[in-house]
Design brief:
- About 65% of the residues lie in helices and about 0% in strands.
- The chain has six helices and no strands.
Length: about 190
């Protein structure tokens, strides 16, 4: 009996080693792609296009698409929300500035952009694979699902935008602020005689 356990462990060792090497290589390329946000999102949009064409071609898997839409809405809410919600947790740590005289504190997301992208892309890949199994092709009337998802999206985003307005934060980086000096001091310093 002991011999059978040892042979299965030795048979699993190469598979386990291959999986570890694959995981290291995958993580290496994932780390290399981190600073290239534009190219990552272009690749994700290609995956989205392939998924949409697949669903359009087979004329089915609407329930998979609906579940994917709900998951993406959840990811979007995490991406737009601050790490520390001022409504729920009054904390001693960094809070969002509420007045112009407050100290600048950067907006820290609950779900960072890279994790948002990774989860977004992984969800579309999983949904694409699911379209090859007929068990997931549940017959539904897709216009009802679409209308329900649109209502859910509008209500959720309205609540999120109201939260943004109430606590005065913008979850997007609008670029570095450019300050222009006073023109009167610049012109007076140019006419100064030394």
């Amino acid at each position: 009996m002991e011999g059978t356990g040892g042979s299965s462990a030795s048979a699993a060792a190469p598979v386990n080693q291959w999986w570890q090497e694959f995981s290291k290589l995958f993580q290496y390329y994932l780390d290399k792609s981190t600073p290239h946000a534009t190219y990552r999102w272009i690749g994700s949009l290609v995956i989205v296009l392939i998924y949409v064409l697949r669903v359009f071609y087979v004329q089915g898997f609407y329930i998979v698409s609906y579940g994917l839409g709900i998951y993406l809405l959840n990811l979007l809410i995490g991406f737009l929300s601050p790490l520390v919600d001022p409504e729920l947790e009054p904390s001693d740590g960094p809070l969002l500035p509420t007045k112009g005289s407050d100290e600048f504190k950067p907006f820290i997301r609950r779900l960072p952009e890279f994790k948002f992208w990774y989860s977004f892309t992984k969800a579309f890949c999983i949904a694409f694979v699911m379209t090859f199994f007929s068990v997931f092709d549940v017959p539904v009337f897709w216009p009802i699902l679409l209308c329900y998802w649109i209502v859910l999206f509008v209500l959720t985003m309205r609540r999120q935008i109201a939260h943004m307005i109430k606590y005065k934060y913008i979850p997007f980086n609008l670029g570095k602020q450019k300050y222009s000096g006073k023109k009167s001091s610049a012109s007076s310093s140019g006419s100064r005689a030394d």
